[in-house]
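Friendly challenge for the regulars: who can give me the structure tokens for this chain first? No prize, just bragging rights.
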Amino acid sequence: MLKEQIEKLAVAINQDVVSNRRHLHAHPELSFKEYETSAFIKRKLDEMEIPWQPVADTGILAIIHGDKPSDQVIALRADMDALAITEANNVEYASLLKGVMHACGHDVHTASLLGTARILQSIKSEFGGIVKLIFQPAEEKLPGGASVMIKEGVLENPKPHAVIGQHVMPSIATGKIGIRKGKHMASMDELYVTVHGKGGHGAQPHQNIDPVLIAAHIIIALQQVVSRMANPHMPTVLSFGKLIANGTNNVIPDQVYLEGTFRTLDEDWRTEAHSRIKKMAETIAESMGGRCEFKIVKGYPFLVNEEKLTEQVYSYARHYLGNENVQDLEIWMAAEDFAYYSQVADSCFYLLGTGNKARGITAAVHTPVFDIDENALTVSTGLMAYIAVKRLGN
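First reply, four minutes later:
Bragging rights claimed.
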């Protein structure tokens, strides 16, 4: 049976997949600068005799044609950029570039899709239809590589009937995946705020307009957007993670700088909230004698897993992994530019278990000590190959 054939191939190529992942992990590149990564992928595709074309500078689109007759098309996506984080892991494949690290598992995604490609290329006589392999740059940086790839036609000629993606998740044990139908991940907007006042001596506050106090009022007041303005049934997050008030213990500065994020899962509320946030901050600053420059950079939309497609993926995953190894997920307020695919095509994005508590592999993504249980690479390659051939109708 095809399932057993794919399982055997996933095991057989595992060492190569591990090797590819370790190479990519040791040679990370930042968003829109994945030149060596792109060259590595192209070499691997050439070795497999899979045709490819460049898209969005460092991105790659490769295509596998099944030998049997079918008009079905599926796209499989992997991102490949790293983060500006200095790795703290003491492993032989640790990053060789100080200050840059694959701390979000994109090395895993890329190596896995190369492995899936190898499986599908070796069994293309067993299925029909077209598999589009999307190796995407810059998931970590606005405007997001997905949006650029889509604009350059990665979902055209031919259009896929489904787009599938996966993401590492250390809180899920290796051997398992997590999946959710419908709205899954949040939109993401960046907030940049400068509060202007009038600085001076801390002992003479009556002669100043204190931007630190104004900023404090703004931060606290804006939480009303979440607690009093948002529908309680609509998940909403408003957080500030950066505050610079460059005075001293007795010097009030002229201005305070803030950075934050706004996230939700409804586009109408997202637009309304932007207006409310900006107006509230500006009004508070004005009422206290200062002024506020409030810039909102609109980021990724929310990610939605199309119901019928996701139900199919549920079924395929249960058959491939066993019912007990497919978990139902809650909404996750993180953001992912795979959301762009989900807004224009039937899509399904699931989380790949990479954690192993017994071995101490539990660190979260975006941390200097993030790593994976590499046994997950057998699942990541085989399951996606199985999903592809099943969804193509084979």
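The chain has a mean pLDDT of 97. The CA atoms of residues 56 and 152 lie 7 Å apart. Your move, everyone else.
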